[in-house]
Amino acid sequence: MIKPQPILLVEDDQAQNTLISAMLNAANYQVYSAFSVEDAIVTLKSHADIELIFTDWKLGNLSGMDLIKYVRAQQKHIGIVVATAYGSIEHAVEAIELGADDYLSKPFQRQELLLALAKANKANQLRLANQQLSSQISEQNQLVDIIGHAPCMQKVFQRIERVSATSATVLISGESGTGKELAARALHQLSNRSKQPFIAINCGAIPENLAESELFGALKGAYTGATQDKLGKFAAANKGTIFLDEVAELSLNVQTKLLRLLQEGVVTPVGDTKEHNIDVRVLAASHKNLQQMVRDGLFREDLYYRLNVVPLHMPPLRERQEDIPRLIEHFLKRFSQQYGIEAPQLSSTLLKHLLNFNWPGNVRQLSNTLEQFVLLQDETELKENLTNTANSAQTNALFTLPSEGLNWDEFEKDCLQQALNREGGNKTQAAKLLWISYKQFLYRLEKHNLN
Ligand SMILES: Nc1ncnc2c1ncn2[C@@H]1O[C@H](COP(=O)(O)OP(=O)(O)OP(=O)(O)O)[C@@H](O)[C@H]1O
After folding, report:
1. What are the structural domains of the chain?
2. What's the 366 CA to ligand 1 centre distance in angstroms?
3. Is the pTM value of this prediction over 0.80?
């Protein structure tokens, strides 16, 4: 036998109440009877399982209208059917406008009553499904602290959610300011390591000669100035997550040690002979093309594959313009709270400006721009700044050929020579400076007899 469905019957006429109760009981409803609006509210509060109400319109001092208002204000998923006096269509209209699902005009047949209740049940289910859907949608507007609703961001969210439960290494790519560190933090926060440390390191900011001891630790006396044992970042992040930003900047020597950690789960501090076990999840990021660096012999291929178990690409802001209004709202709120200043209103022309700008510095640039706007509240200056950035980006992007032209061979030779001079004859570094592979660099040196 199907479990009876709880229903609240609100009818102030004792005889009617008993009659309708009997009809409903026979149709497998579990009836809670109330004789006034106040009575009904008390019953609703004490029986959270009630999802259906059948109420009379006229109820002493109050009316069905007050009950509908109360229920809808509580946003409860409750189906409501109202019984109105014969001929009072205006009450029926009012009831529906206020959120009742159906009405019955008195007198009504048993069959009509059951049909109206079935309709209200259906409407109720739809409301519930809609609310679940919209709460899912609003979840997808943001994952931890990452805001984004564009389809490309939804893919990012899905991937983060899928791999956050694992300890898989993730290589996060994307231009500067696209939220790579934010994604790494989200991966950590959604993992079961979230209570353990999250350590972010900018590999490009550590001097090459200190990188090994910074990351893997060092024993006292291992190098000049090591007056005591030094705990490496990996050991500090034990059981947690380490985020290696600008991983492309690590020297080949450090890359080798990192590979050993990823393969064996051990580190050897500088000056130590023993290996130490470390349980750390490694996340890495780079805005450089690591695959190209592998081809150029600047990044270990085996390490690249170890890091790139799960690739995660953060799209540039210009490819998800639809997210800009949401981000603007987020940053205006954040900075106005941070500085205790009321958020300024954006004019529609400024908004258009912000939407059409191509944001070479991505979300970071948008955030900085809005921080300045909150502080200065100067729309003209903001527009000017954006225009200047756009112009300078354009000038930087293009090399201006002198009007008289140039001797290409001489120009190339000059660049090679200057790069060598600047890097003290170090060909690997000189090649990097010119953004060409080491092989290409050697080839060009030979071409110009610069060997
Ligand atoms: N989707 C986003 N939602 C909200 N804030 C964001 C988003 N993306 C980036 N930000 C904010 O923009 C700034 C830059 O983000 P983050 O440092 O994560 O970028 P990044 O890609 O790691 O940059 P870099 O390569 O220069 O280190 C931070 O203040 C971050 O909070």
Report:
1. 5-137 (3.40.50.2300), 143-313 (3.40.50.300), 318-397 (1.10.8.60), 408-447 (1.10.10)
2. 10
3. no
